[in-house]
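As promised in the previous annual report, we have extended the structural survey to additional targets. Below is the entry for Tat pathway signal sequence domain protein.
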Amino acid sequence: MRRFAAVALSAGTLMAGMAAVSAPAQADSVKLTDSAAASAASTAAAPTASAAARGWKAINTYRYIDAWGTYTRSGGKTYVKAYLRDTKANYYTACVRFLFQEGKRAYWSRHHIVGVRPNGSRYAFDGKGTITIRTSSSYSSHLWVQECGRSTKNGKFYYGKGKKLF
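The corresponding structure token record, generated without further manual editing, is:
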């Protein structure tokens, strides 16, 4: 299952990169994108209307990073819609990760802000920006959310305190 998830994530990232390269260039603007959510958004179907969405907000571990959104449980799957905001240029890129659990099995889904220059090249974004994330998993026993920051200097991820949503 881990290999399948890794292959799917790699393929999705590759497809998102190809879409970014083939998109028409804009003169002076920089596009913000999520690192893994581009592929997950296409695979995450919308839950039925009867399922009630529940709001959440991550524990505010890092001063200039905010993560919030909703989750829905429907048909044995968990769907997450999230917003990730970086409010200051401070050598850290905002990121958030989710832990989906089903018994002893677990699936991590990590998302961070990636900047895309007009020529299509990608870089670790550091500044003010907000992205929308959509992800889902068939692991639906428990869901955790955790704020994190990625250093633009060395590329390491630093994780805050996790919060159990259900």
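The chain has one domain: 2-164. Strands lie at 31-34, 54-57, 65-74, 77-86, 92-102, 105-116, 122-124, 129-137, 142-151, 157-164. These points will be discussed at the next consortium meeting with the crystallography subgroup.
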